[in-house]
Amino acid sequence: MSFLRRSAMAVPATAVFLLIAVPGFSQTPSRTATRITAQIPRMPDGKPNFTGLWQALGTADWDIKPHYAHAGPFFQLGAEGAEPAGEGIVEGDVIPYTPEAAAKVKENLANRMKLDPEIKCYMPGIPRANYLPFPFQIVQGNQDIAFAYEYATSNRAVNMGKFREGQVDTWMGTSNGHWEGATLVIDVSGLNGSSWYDRVGDFQTENTHVVERFTLADADHINYEATIEDQTIYTRPWKISTVFYRRKEKNAQLNEFKCVEFAEELIYGDLRKKK
Amino acid sequence: MRSFRFALMLTPVGLALLTAASALAQSAPHALPAAPKNWVQTKTPWGDPDIQGTWTSDDCIGTPMNRPANFGDRAYLTEQEMAERMKRLEQQHEGDLKDTVDANQRVGTGPPGNWGERARRPCRQTSLVVDPLNGRTPDLLPEAKTRPVPEGAGNNNPKADSWEDFSWYIRCISRGVTGSILPVIYGNGQQIIQGPGYVTILQEMVHEARVIPLDGRPHESSEVRSYMGDARGHWEGNTLVVETTNFLGGRTGIGLNGGGTPTSDALKLIERFTRISPDEMKYEVTVDDPKTYTRPFKIAFPLTQEAGYQNFEYACHEGNYAMFDSLSGARAKEKAAAAKAAAGK
Predict the structure, then answer these.
(1) Neighboring chain B residues of A157 at a CB cutoff of 8 Å
(2) What is the DSSP letter of A170?
(3) pLDDT, tens only, A140-175
(4) Chain B residues in contact with A260 (beta carbon < 8 A)
(5) Which of A85, A254, B12, B294 is the 20 to 30 Å CA partner of B335?
(6) Nearest C-alpha of chain B: how many angstroms from A146?
(7) Test the A interface: residue of B198, B208, B221 with most A CBs within 10 Å
(8) In chain A, what residues touch B228 (CB-CB under 8 Å)?
């Protein structure tokens, strides 16, 4: 207890954080739990500092629902192009689509090569940007927070000031953030409805509202949750949850993946002058 | 983006797409608020000079990169010239408040000027190039003159055999570091977000995001190259100094929109950001490319803040109908010409 009291006095947010973030936490935490949370990087005002290079693991980029391994669309790519199995990141495993929306998912999947925005190097939207197999950089200061994603140089500024409605719908949406204890909560609205969640046609609309929750589990792991609601295509709100890992390689940094030129032949190829 | 509701997309032929039009009045030209007398650079809670905010290079819209010959070595406008330009901006603003297109106006493929950004005050400089003293970009080396320059905007009849005939910015790939901050007719916003150890610049133009580490780490391996390069920053007093290397060669140039003769893989940029008042920052960039120019040169212009100004998402590639239209138009023309030739036989 004396350790906890000391650290709680030094950094008031610590105690609050423990209560929120550690499952099964009681009034007398183990010294181990205290020590781990004490390692969380913090801003001068005691708030958790999310600045760093992060990346999701797993196969949610393929399919956010549980799935077994599949052959890829091009036999030429062999094992490299195949889809690995995964548990998915949807809580309860099922996205509660309306029957019409479920039919649209099937249609999307059938026409994936033409329709998936990722294939065309379009901005991925939220939440898909977060769990693509690319790193993203968070830079957190005392005002707004920057998210820079490697894929397609997509990015967003999270407004931490007075709530601001987006003036136009956009691919990456309008992000308004606030703190709930040690959790960074980001309300994402103003999405333009063109984004998918994965490569199997799971989709959103311009009515989709995403509320994300970022909580540092320790210095190198972010517990991520997002609640998604859209009465036009889902029968109830649903939730995804996953973990972002800090990239620890000594020279790890955000690189550039300007994929437009990798997609132009696919998009415009039939319009090239025939020789 | 100025603070009213539209999304503007310029295409190779200068076609503009207007959506969500609900134009609020654009602010009239006005002087920048004077800096408080005893203004000192504030610091972030972790001790770095605080240069956060959304800045724009709009003030020097229309200032030529290279100084017109009649100015000689004169770097700045006289007070009288400034007053004349202010008057012109005011007249332009009056015009902007009228109908977008007059009933008898001849309409081309370009958008009306007031769909773009306007300078809020005249720029004192006679050119964006400030060194050498003649205000002109140094000569190209012979090897640079042979580099192919893709089709930029402003050509209404471009070669359009393939997307590869078009410039990197028409393809919505990038305008490069200088092209993403140099003042042009739209998209000059620069949102700076600082954190301990980093400065981030989110740029409206083609949604660039520059993440600049300040921890003194060396540049990446020279094998890792990119359009926007590898940036490293440090503070010299209150000035943020950013050195960027590791560029892909033969892509964007230093001209407006990242156009002009492409720079080489030896390009090194040194940028200096110095906030001189709450709403004004001095910006300069030294361009050092020993495989392209006969000597290094320097470009400078102010960045300013305006109440209500914010970046908009510039989904350039996602909305690049111009590329479809340019290519499909060219194919249709060829088809029509072939049909005509066949009919004439």
Answers:
(1) 191, 193, 202, 311
(2) B
(3) 999 999 999 999 999 999 999 999 999 999 999 999
(4) 171-173, 317
(5) B12
(6) 7
(7) B198
(8) 256
Choice among A88-92, A253-257, A270-274, B32-36 with the minimum mean pLDDT? B32-36
The average pLDDT across B204-221 equals 97
Question: How much of chain B, in percent, has pLDDT values that exceed 90?
Answer: 75
pLDDT at residue A16 tops 60: no
Residue B153's pLDDT is what? 67
CA A102-A106-A108 angle, to 5 degrees, is: 110
Report the run of H or E that residue B20 belongs to, with start and end: strand B16-22
B210 touches B201 (CB < 8 A): yes
Tokens found for residue A212: 């994300």
* Backbone φ, ψ for residue A151 (5° rounding): -60, 120
With CB atoms and an 8 Å threshold, state whether B195 touches A49: yes
- Residue pair A53/A136 in contact by the 8 Å Cβ criterion: yes
Neighbours of B65 (CB within 10 A): 17
Secondary structure class of B337 (helix, strand, coil):
helix
Tokens of B2: 């100025």
C-alpha distances in Å from residue A35, one per residue of A6, A7, A8, A44, B282: 12, 10, 12, 19, 46
Whole-model pTM: value is: 0.89
pLDDT at B12 over 80: no
- ipTM score over 0.95, yes or no: no
